[in-house]
## 1
Amino acid sequence: MADALRDKGIGTPATRADVIENLISKEYVARSGKSLRATSKGMRLLDVLNRVPVDGLASVELTGEMEFGLKQMERGQKSRAEFMKEMAEYTTEVVEKTRGFDYEQLYAKEPALGECPACKKGTVYESFWGYKCNQKETCNFIIWKEKNQRYLDRSLVADLLSKKIVGPVEFTTLSGTSYSTFLTTTEKGVFFSDENGTPTETLPGAEVKVLHEEQLPQTFLAMPGRLIETETAYMCEFGTPALEVVESEKAGSDSEKKTTKKKSTKTPTTARKVAAKKPKKLMARMPKTLCGHVVSRDEFRSFVITGMTPAITDFKSKKGRPFAATLHLKSNGNFEFKFESRKKLLGDEEKPKTRAKKPGTKAKVVKKTSKAESAAAE
């Protein structure tokens, strides 16, 4: 790797920047603050390339070797014909070995990950898109490799199938904000859950039971809202229904002016209804259990009306450490954490220490003297 970066570098700084932008545009990597992170799509591609029987296809050394060959040709150490012959031979090898291969065969030698939680008869094996039950004719159970922008690898899925609950597992939103939650398996797949394994998101095909609903005349986003509470989450639907605007003909002086003009043969329209365009719905959603904290209805109501929740001190990080934060409403309906000092909120913040005076010691008193007193003393 050191050689690839020193003598066999990956292009120039300009071309490296182009490569990074190309990877971002194809959604193989994504920006996360000042750094880059691999996306689920990029991880799947790299996994397939490593399984395809072509040496170096997913290796950084391959690009380094190509760059090194170009430098040798530039210095006269290798002829153009020799370099092009090497590239043609390698390209032919890649095409022959990758043309028409079966995706399923890439995972044929992988061992089973565990028992199928749906049919209880089959076993779960890895495939290109996910982890499926081998009883294809009678069972359609699958765990997709991507969940909420996170790649679910073999070890994580194996733990899920054996333990039923894993976590906290770190996820990242589209905006780059990290959060952690537990995962659980059911006969329908993998879902977010609390630490006891109770799903915190609605299962497919399940009827959504509304526990509470109320209208909010005004919200932080300067529009009315409808607060909805279900068994697993809070939601707020922003906006108002489309209104019909009735446009009438002008009266008064305008009608008098029309009498002087030639009468039209068309039938006058007394009123015309114009339907306003239906606004796009904006929805805010928050799970009832977030980072170990059970969100109350009052907290979510404050979040929608004021744009933030009160300070919450019992959040837990993915490592189980408590932290404090407020949840802030963004213009697109999403929420973000703004961290607070937990000690300060709980009243445990240490006061600045003051030096204690030693017993039996007296403070020195410095007497200021005037110029006249100094002269008299002399």
## 2
Amino acid sequence: MSDDNKTIDWLLRCGVALQCAGYAWLVGVVLETPLLAWLWEPADVGGLGLGEARGMAIVRVVGVLLTLAAVSTIMRPSRVLLGLVFLFQLLLAYAAWQTYDGFPLDVAWLGGGQLRAWGETAVRLFPFAAGAARIAAPLVLLLVHWSKIRKLMGIAITPTVEWLLRVSIALTFAAHGLEAMQQRGSFLDMLIVTAHRLFDVRLEESTAQTMLLIIGVIDLVVAVLIVARRWRPVVGYMAAWGLITAAARFFALGVDRGWYEFAIRSAHWVLPLVLVLAWRLVPVPDALLRSIGSDD
């Protein structure tokens, strides 16, 4: 197996382990996730109505499982635990959808009538787009680590995995781009605080808003480009920007909170970096890949 393919496997393992560790702390200790709200809130507001005590007991068990998954992913990856991590990420997005958690995108620009109604329905599904990279990360590791093609030929990334990576990264960047263009408050605060603490620069709010608009447009552009064609500079930029925005949590929130906010966003830079490495390798014809075996 080539050094790049070994690196891809370990990069995914480290990224997913970080993601699991961050969510284990956030879910099981901090207790600040839409999952808990969904479990205890009544049905008339989108919850299951299990009550606070049951909800907290469930999320603490989830936290323990995520901790086990973090350790296992580094030491010896487990199909079962990675599958549970994938289901957890889906469930987290579902909980956010059901409880209207997250940034409420404005669809007034769509006008009135049916188009706006469709827009309002689509906006409710926004947590799945924003979390697409995090949802995909454990699934990508499952497909890569136990791939027959990887074992026979040392090829880590098949066409199926490549498109899973490209689409999930594109969805996440597009979602964050829309949030930035609509001036999400937490993004604005993070930009101002990070500029002050890291560079000792005091940004005016109007300047920060302009910067956020530009950032949002760039996010949308690269989201389109990563799907449109193989272009390593684009995914290289996405990896760098994903790492920068994740690391900015340390400066904006402090180490105590910043570490797990950084960890849960590991997929935002790990997955693009995987493509940077994968696209450096000599491409193998799809027909040859199909003749060897499936991805599982």
## 3
Amino acid sequence: MKKMLFFCLLVCLATLPAVAPAGLLFNSGEIEPGLKYEDFSIGQDGNLTGAIVNTSNRLRPAFRLDLWTTDMHETRVLWRKSLHIGSLPPGGRFTFKEPYDKDYDSSLRIKFSFRIGR
């Protein structure tokens, strides 16, 4: 029984980084196989910072990454941005710092969504 509770707690904690209250570290997650985001956070200065990492063993040709935040029910888009990313070699990392609305409600829970474009 204790092992089952521990496992459930571990699963809950593992899924927490993708969805967290605004103003906190969002950690890492997978966008699609071979591509992930790392260290997403919204700072007190109103900037969203983080990195996109190519975790595959092949070159990823230049692409556009659309990212946006929504409320937890995905009924309202709070912020959106398109990042034009050059070719990423295996293990390549694209870091960014983008303005995020300074007037966001820090008690609001938000969700990141991604779309890959060419």
